Structure formats: C-alpha cells, structure tokens
Amino acid sequence: METLFKTTPLERAIEAIVAAAGSEAGEARQVAENLVTANLLGHDSHGIGMIPRYIDAVLEGGLAPNQHPKITIDAGALIAVDGCKGYGQVIGREAMLMAIERAKRLGSCVMALGNSHHLGRVDAFRERNLARARGTAWRTRRALRHQSLLYRHTAARRGALRARLRDQRRGARQDARRP
C-alpha cells in the first residue's frame, strides 16, 4: 500500500525535525525543501530518508547546525572552502554563491569544498543558481574531507615522488646484487 503526502505539510514536518535538532528556521527550511524535492524528482536516496542519519550525525558531532562556509585557501581564482561540518544543502549553496561572485569578479573560479555534511541532490545548486551562474562549468566530486582538485594535485605529486623513490631503491638493490 502506498501512502501519499502533500508536499507542503511534508516539508513543514521535516523542517520541524531539523529545527528540533538545533537549526535556525532558514536552515531548517532549506534542508527540508531540498530533501522533499529530491524525493519528488525520484532521488529517494537523497530525500527525506536521510533524516534519521542527519539526526544521528548531529548527536554524534559529525553534523553541526547553523554553520557557514569559510575560505581556508585563497589564491584569487582558486579557493578552498571548509564546510565546518554544516548541512551540505546550506554549505553547498553558500559556497557556490561565493564561487559565482569570485568568477564574476575575476573571470573564473575553481572552488574546492570539504568538511561538509551530505550535500543532498547536488543538481539543486545548479538549478537554483543557473541565472547567476550563466556560462559556468559544473564539476562535482564526492568529498567527505578536503579532497578536491587542489589536494589531488598535491597528492599526485607526492605519488609521483614516491614512485620515483621506489624505482630508485629497486635499481639500487638490483645494482647491489650484480657481481
């Protein structure tokens, strides 16, 4: 048997749960709208079924209500943003707006976002900000911690260095075995 709920009362119910977990009204509304919309668009894995996990995360300290993104690395058109363990629906939107404004001012912007809780249905950011972000490229990568373009580049260099050192050691061992 299928149970159908009207959108607005469902959003208000989810909003009340998120607010009861410590969120301010605006944050609770934004999270609830994102989750209900995900369900309405068929993305049930990113919808209201996440609420029990969100509440657990708040209680465990992995999700902090009422946070705002902070720029941790500012290299002009390249910024790294810390989500401060906040709701991804809020952090992602605010971080995207930061990147859009930076791109308008400088001509382009690459933004890496980390330390944010579940972003929800990521396309919501693009859809909501399409008019503001005209002409932008959109690339996402699932990141639980700071692991993004900026950090992958650094890791790739470290990986290349490790490989070179490993090859040098192998070569030295082979040279030592030769008579």
Secondary structure elements and their pairing?
Elements: H1 7-20, H2 25-40, H3 51-60, E1 70-74, E2 78-82, H4 88-106, E3 110-114, H5 123-128, H6 149-177
Parallel strand pairs: 2-3
Antiparallel strand pairs: 1-2
Walk me through the structure.
About 9% of the residues have low confidence. Helix content is 53%, strand content 8%. By secondary structure, the protein is mainly alpha-helical. The longest helix is centred in the C-terminal third of the chain and has 29 residues. Strand 1 and strand 2 form a beta hairpin. A 3-stranded mixed sheet has the order 1-2-3, with helices on one face. The protein folds into 3 domains: 54 residues, Hypothetical Oxidoreductase Yiak, Chain: A, domain 1 (Orthogonal Bundle); 76 residues, Ribosomal Protein S8, Chain: A, domain 1 (2-Layer Sandwich), CATH 3.30.1370; 32 residues. The chain is globular, with a radius of gyration of 21 Å. The chain has 6 helices and 3 strands; from the N terminus they run αααββαβαα.
Tag the structure with descriptive keywords.
single chain, mainly alpha, Ribosomal Protein S8, Chain: A, domain 1, 3 domains, three-stranded mixed β-sheet, 6 helices, 8% strand, globular
